[in-house]
Automatic annotation (TrEMBL):
The chain crosses the membrane at residues 170-191. The keyword Transmembrane applies. SMART domains: HATPase_c. The keyword rRNA-binding does not apply. Its EC number is 2.7.13.3. Keywords: ATP-binding, Cell membrane, Kinase, Membrane, Nucleotide-binding, Phosphoprotein, Transferase, Transmembrane, Transmembrane helix, Two-component regulatory system. This is histidine kinase. It catalyses: ATP + protein L-histidine = ADP + protein N-phospho-L-histidine. GO terms for cellular component: plasma membrane. It holds the Pfam family HATPase_c. It is a multi-pass membrane protein. InterPro entries: HATPase_C_sf, HATPase_dom, His_kinase_dom, PAS-like_dom_sf, sCache_3, Sensor-like_sf, Sig_transdc_His_kin-like_C. One of its GO terms (molecular function) is ATP binding. It comes from Micromonospora lupini str. Lupac 08.
Amino acid sequence: MARRQWSIAGQLFALQAVVVTLLVLGGAAGAVWLARVDSRQAAQEKVLAVAQTVAGSPDVRAALATADPASILQPYAEATWRATDTDFVVVMAPDRTRYSHPTPKLIGEPFVGDIGPALAGRPFTTTNVGTLGESVRAVVPVYDEERRIVGLVSVGITTRAINRKLLRQLPVLLGVAAPALALAATGSWLLSRRLRRQTHGLGPAQMTRMYEYYDAVLHSVREGLVVLTTDRRVALVNDEGRRLLGLDADEPVTDQPVAGIDLPPAVAELLGSGRDALDEPMLAGDRVLVANQRTARFEGAPLGTVLTLRDQTELRTLASELDSVRALTEALQAQTHESANRLHTVLTLVELGRADEAVRLGTRDLALAQQLTDRVVDAVTEPALAALLLGKSAQAGERGVDLVVEPDCRLDDSPLPTNDLLTVVGNLIDNALEAVAGTPPPRTVRVFVGAVDDELVVRVADSGPGLAADRVADAFRRGWSTKSTGRGLGLALIGQVVRRHGGSYDVGRSDDGGSLFTVRLPVGGAPR
């Protein structure tokens, strides 16, 4: 069987119980010791006072001058120790001969104990073992009228009597110690109960292991994690979250209100709203992130909000390229079917002896396709851009859209990184194709790419319904699409490229009544 592990609360309660018990017992022992010291001191003061009173009595001095002092002093001493609650009063001669004693048969016997200081004229107290056992006693000299020592008086209280008085005080001490111990134990129990709730009954080893795993996981996961409290303060941001949100590694964000942190607008809006989000794309600088946000709860009570972020910048780029390849493949498949139909028709015309019509039919479409290819290749020497335009042309033809590359289109060398150029041209064409989808024919998209006055100009016009002026800034800031989902990022990605290269964009009306998107980027300008 596994060894049972104590929780932190249980260990704390046990430790507090031991400490409190030891403190109370120590306090009680200290109180008993002090009471014992006080009792002995009180006994010393009492016996000294009684002895001095007896020694100063004229009756005692007179009795010591008689021929039989014991007959007078024994009754006197017996009455005195009974009246003063002492254990013995012994009057003796300077040679230790007793004239009184609680045990009458010991009268006449020598006194047991030290009397030296009293014979020298100094009253004193001491603890000695005598015939009655250990006792606290005082010895005082008796003077005659000529100041000669004519006798000694010893008054004592046995240690047993002192201890009996002390034992009678123990119930009082226990009556004070027991409630104190009960009160301390109750406080320790309440504290341990509260700690058990807060630590969920976990032990030190479990909490240490949980912290180590927690810290290791937060630093190693490849998803950004942002945790907010119920009052919209940042409780946690892991390393990947800082990287995706552009936060410095040493920037203090913990316990800061989310409104006071410099975050990308889309992320700040999502965190500030506290709403749930499922695979919601958003822009953070140059990155395309997918956000998921949920309210964290424990036993039904809300603890805060948890936001996870996944970087899909590269995935979006690959998906865009894949979409282009898929569209080109579909167009080629369609053209294959069309070519098969035309070939069958040409062969039939030849069999019918109508060779001239067969030649015209076979070369007409080929000439048109070759004409478009020659125009694009001659005008655009950037192979990736030329391939993109040809692919988009095939895609447009499949959708029933006439994609026209403007005759004055000319681009010998791309002044932009290829990825940025494809982002601008490809997304503008995609948005234009979406804009004309569903509109009555003729459906037209016109494209111009070229260098004009030290600027690279990309201009795409469509015959769609157009984009309202009040939606332009919003489209480029947060991402916008003509799709019904409304979750496109094409224009926002274009806006990032424009800002990075210090360019500009403009949206107006085309000659066909649709939208005219114009993007201008400085030629040779260093990206920012």
